[in-house]
Amino acid sequence: MATTDTTTLQALQGRFPAVTTSEFRGQTRVVVPSESLYDVLAFLKNDRGFDFLSDVTCVDYLNYRDAKDRFGLVYILVSTLTNERLFVRSFLNEPELAVPSAVPLWEGANWLEREVWDMFGIKFVGHPDLRRILLPPEYTAHPLRKDYPLQGRGERHNFPVLARNSA
Amino acid sequence: MSLVAPQHATVEDVVRDDAQDYLWTLNFGPQHPATHTTLRLLLKLDGERVVDAVPDIGYLHSGFEKLGEHLDYNQYVTVTDRMNYISPMANNVAWHTSVERLLGIEITPRCQYIRSIVAELARISDHLLCNGAVGLDVGAFTFFLYAFYQREVLYDIFETLCGARFTNSYTRVGGLMHDMTPLVIEKIRAFLRKFPKTLDDMDRLLNRNKIFIDRTKGVGILTKEQAINRSASGPIARASGVTRDLRKDEPYLAYKDFDFQVCCAPAGDCLARYLVRMAEMRESLKIVEQAVENLPAGEINVGINQRTALPSKKMVYSSIEGTISHFELTMSNRGFEVPHEESYAANEAANGELGFYLVGDGNDVAYRARCRPPSFIHFALFPDLIRGHTLSDIVAVLGSLNIIAAELDR
Amino acid sequence: MAIELPENVVISKLDQLANWCRKNSLWPMPFATACCGIELMATGASKHDLARFGAEVFRFSPRQCDLMIVAGRVVMKMLPVLQRIWQQMHEPKWCISMGACASTGGVFDTYSVVQGIDRFLPVDMYVPGCPPRPEQLIQSIIDLQDKIQREGTLNGREFNLESRQEPKRALVEIPSASLFDGARNPIF
């Protein structure tokens, strides 16, 4: 399992004192205030060699125990040279659901961020093409939010019925 | 700096833009035989040359991740089967690797070996279908039949192993559904003996085939920098010269025990992706052979005192610990002890890095089950790979990216 | 007046002759979306060989087909496409709903999956299984052929029957409180 080099963490905390770190099962996570998220990601990419963005995702902490914030963004970064893996997290609350887009750093973030917008309704400022990706454009809800029911709100039943002789 | 933004931001823009009215728009999919799956492309064509392509996906979005928040760690494995339905075993293994990391379970050596075997067999099955489909799309039908016949052999092995042809659901938290029987091992050995010959035949059919090479060489080139910057993984990244393989870089299961090589190619075109997949099948065979010959004895499930794997039926009926453990695990509030934590574990699945980001909340159902789908990330590359090539190259590029719709849309 | 017929002449109704032709030359349109599509491919491939039952001519253009096999789940975004393809097919036409997802939504009781295509389309045959084995699909085609032989008419009167217009349901929904209601209510 690839852990994160401690020098990376020291450099990160030296540059951004507001960053907190934690570790679980050998995986290093850093929590970054959403204002400095882009700067941290840029620092990690340009100065610390995290050239591979493995994943961008989001968690809705609506009913989570001891959760203070509603949404948590997760960026999973990998360095292809040293195989370090670093989890960058940032918390967001309504109504300011917007963070700078990471597309200028990693082009691979494009669709991943579109998916987060589609599923959670978090805006990525500066994203070149932020529109729904998986759901139809006329869909209004963000289904992976915890206040959205699993079976939806009837969208799946809303179609015309073709009878046998109506073709 | 070039952004990934297609030159036309929305689907409507492609249609409306009449500045270059000699271009015409072609709708490709969502129901088209050459896409193999349900995806839609809006193509802007100059004659036969593709000027721009706008992918439109979501035609198979079925809410897998939402479902993961409502099915417990053992139930959800059935849903992962239907994610990448070309290699379900690899998905099963990836899912439970992630769950076990979250729960902090160390599985037994025998279980590790068996999981490695089935994951590699799944990789062979995936690569066979992918390469077979590439062959089919560019006109080599016989090649496809060779590949499909071997897939039936693999289905037969899986059916003997767990009773299902290809929705296997073979893994369980802390173990497996069944142990490997001698019959399965015998069938795997027979496959190991016969399959290299088929691979040789397949090599002879296509590797020096002029038509095939003309249609794939230099088509859909992905450079190394692009591959890294755009999060490509698996055979697609390796065909562009990225020497990244999670089996070596972040060893999981029993991969550190095996002697195998990471297959790479520098060219980054469709031919390189085909060749990398062919070479990977041979490496997978080596892994399976080593694993089968050195299969450790012992239990496949973790011990009963860990309270994670269901005890065997014999234990349930003959001992009080077995009965209690079985009962507790099937109760919804007495099952696994899940920390209030988050973890991520990735496997090198046939298509690339397949990982699950899990958030536990003390319950035996995940609070959030995010899947990192390789197909989704690879399909984002498509507009750049096809730009400037002809319409007929679309099927070659799509085939070599191995887009599986259920994994693409989830 | 009795006319002596030669030995190689069979007398039948015109309806039956038409049905006999139709049932043995079904041209399937594979509407394959998900896992069932792989089994559909296996059905057509060499081991199971659908050609033995006169239904092997897979055509990907709906205008050339008279049997639509919907293999795999159909989601919100896909359903209008499916309906359009169905409308493009010529009469007489039939529809097989292959697998649990197409018939009832299967395990995917989620916001985006249509809970059975039979809510919005006429379906003639349901194939159970997740996914059904190729043998099961072949059986359903044999059953459909049987049905065509029994019920079919030359001018397709059977499609206009009042009783055939109402959508059938493979899945009857129980209007009780949902199992999944509330944010966290795990089921087992």
Keywords:
heterotrimer; A: 167 residues; alpha/beta; Beta Polymerase, domain 2; 5-stranded mixed sheet; two-stranded parallel ribbon; 7 strands; elongated; B: 410 residues; mainly alpha; Cytochrome-c3 Hydrogenase, chain B; 2 domains; 3-stranded antiparallel sheet; 11% strand; globular; disordered N terminus
Your description of this structure?
The complex is a heterotrimer of chains A (167), B (410) and C (188). Chain A has 167 residues and is of the alpha/beta class. Helices cover 19% and strands 25% of the residues of chain A. Chain A has helices at residues 6-15, 37-46, 109-120; strands at 20-24, 27-31, 52-60, 71-78, 85-92, 98-100, 123-125. In chain A, strand 1 and strand 2 form a beta hairpin. Chain A is elongated, with a radius of gyration of 19 Å. Chain A starts with 5 loop residues before the first helix and ends in a 42-residue tail after the last strand. In chain C, helix 1 (14-23) runs antiparallel to helix 5 and helix 2 (35-44) packs across helix 5. Chain C is globular. Mean pLDDT of chain C is 81; it is low at 175-188. Chain C is of the alpha/beta class. Chain C has a domain at 26-155: Rossmann fold (3-Layer(aba) Sandwich), CATH 3.40.50. In chain C, 31% of the residues lie in helices and 10% in strands. At the A-B interface, strand 3 and helix 3 of A face helix 2, helix 9, strand 6, strand 7 and strand 8 of B.
Instruction: Give the number of DSSP strands of chain A.
Output: 7
- Our estimate of the beta-strand percent of chain B is 5-15%
CATH class of chain A: Alpha Beta
CATH superfamily caption of chain A = NADH:ubiquinone oxidoreductase Nqo5 subunit
Number of structural units classed as domains of chain B: 2
Question: Which stretches of chain B are poorly predicted, pLDDT < 50 over at least 5 residues?
Answer: 1-7
- What is the mean pLDDT of chain A? 85
- The CATH topology name of chain A reads Beta Polymerase, domain 2
Shape of chain B: globular
From the alpha-carbon coordinates, what is the Rg of chain B to the nearest angstrom?
22 Å
Order of helices and strands of chain B: HEEEHHHHHEEHHHHHHHHEEEHHHH
Main sheet summary of chain A: 5 strands, mixed
**What is the total number of structural domains of chain A?**
1
CATH topology label of the largest domain in chain B: Cytochrome-c3 Hydrogenase, chain B
In spatial order, strands of the major sheet of chain A run 1-2-5-4-3
Q: How much of the residues of chain A is beta strand, in percent?
A: 15-25%
